[in-house]
Amino acid sequence: MAPRRSHKKSRDGCLKCKKRRIKCDEVHPRCGNCIKHAIECDFSLPPEERAVLSLRHKLRQSPDRSGASSSPSAGSPPLNLPSPSPSHLQPSPGPSHSLDPHNAHRSVANVTDPLLYAAEAKQTWAQNGLPPLSPALSSTSPFLASGQVALRPFQNAHQIQESLNLFDLSLMHQWSVSTSDTLSNNKSIQDLWRYQIPAQLAVHHPFLMHSLLAVSALHLHTTENKGNNYIEIAARHQEHAVRGMAACLAHISRENCDALVVSSCLVVIYSFVSSRNDGASGSIASWVPLIRGVHEILKQAWNWVTQGPLSPLIRQYELSSTNEGLDSETEEVLNNLYQLCHNRSLPGSEELSDTAISTAYFSAIVDLRKSFATVNNWEHIIGSIFVWPITVSDKFVELLVERRPRALIIFIHYCALFTIVEEFWWTKGSALFELRLCEMCLSDEWKDPWISWPKQRILKRDMERKVNVGQPPDGQGQR
Description:
GO molecular function: DNA-binding transcription activator activity, RNA polymerase II-specific; zinc ion binding
Number of helices: 20
Distance between the termini: 70 Å
Protein name: Similar to Sterol uptake control protein 2 acc. no. Q12151
Domain Zn(2)-C6 fungal-type: 13-43
Mean pLDDT: 77
Region (Disordered): 58-104
Keywords: Nucleus
Largest sheet: none
Strand content: under 5%
Low-confidence stretches: 63-115, 128-151, 154-162, 472-479
Radius of gyration: 28 Å
Order of helices and strands: HHHHHHHHHHHHHHHHHHHH
């Protein structure tokens, strides 16, 4: 008897050959058997769809050790697998249903196998494009005005389902045990972020829940060296947060004002990280219009917000102005800045003939002195730092967006102050990033001596920070 011809054993064949129990030649994109029988080969399908089909096939087989068929045992219910495009993976009709406790079982309880759920969810996100932006995003609100605020997500952001899934629970856990503590150094405000905001506000306002999860995903990506998929996850949640906020901004009320204020604060934090990811293509001070947008919301709902649970968060910006915190060097530098407002021998002095422009520069310097003088209280450092971009005039912000040299120089001095809050993961490197962008817009005649002092302070802080974590300072190696 002739010896039996040997063959290579493999489990990588297509599913059609596996079902028919025949040898697959594993040729891509269609194996020989599928071509011969003129049937579709799963090798030609996208990886996400192949993963779903493979999981379904394995779960349906499930043979026991005795070689019995895969029929369910008498004591257990039959395996009820969801279809490749299950209804519970589709976006809900509107954001108001995404956290409805009566609908919550659709996103978690009906999932028989978490791996299958994850694969199908990935397939659904890959197939569905983002819906068109809401008309509310082009509203005249200062917070969302076109050309003033760039609420763009990271690139390559895809559709995310409205209902929360199992992975969102891990992001919520990250928020509760870690991220909530990193947004302030004031204990009462940390507790507010950890307990009241998720439990009392986010559960009733889906756009705020999406904001929490977006920042939580960014935190994991930034501090835990997670992969780029966390950036994409953050972008998906951010997209839904912005859409939900846009719908509510036209109708600010006692019921939604707290959620809008908190969510807009989180948009600012998101912007700090996303702008640095944009690199040199980013806009100078892109977050300034955003934080001013928070102030616009507060102006409309001040009495409601200050009498509610967010009072500690808002009151940190009510700081007394005093010059006791100014050392002689800082005071001399800031006094020298006033020359930008009246010295006609400097380049571009013709703009000072416009009283609105010269006043905008002068007021910005006055407010900057106040901020430098109130940074001694570490528990209120957030308020001390972020009050300046809120109090400067609209005219100054306009000049900054236009990249006027005098506005850029004043802003660079603010960045020197900003280094104080770079203890937080979401602000690290922001001052140096803004300095580099501003330097590209300034001619040499403006760089020395006008930005020498703030630049030295920013570079020193960057060196200290990177030495502490074992990285080379800027300009001395890979960032």
